[in-house]
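Exercise 7. Predict the structure of Cytochrome c oxidase subunit 2A from Fredinandcohnia quinoae.
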Amino acid sequence: MGTKVNQKEKLSEEHEAPLKGTWISVGVVGAVILATYILLYGLYMARF
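Solution. The predicted structure, encoded as tokens:
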């Protein structure tokens, strides 16, 4: 029974660590989408 408790604690620790990287990746993707939108909007407004 003791091993199951230790495994659950280990899994919870391993699960929390990748969340930081996930949010960084989400932020980078969001920033790229936003920059692309602003660039395309700027090009659209600058057309003759």
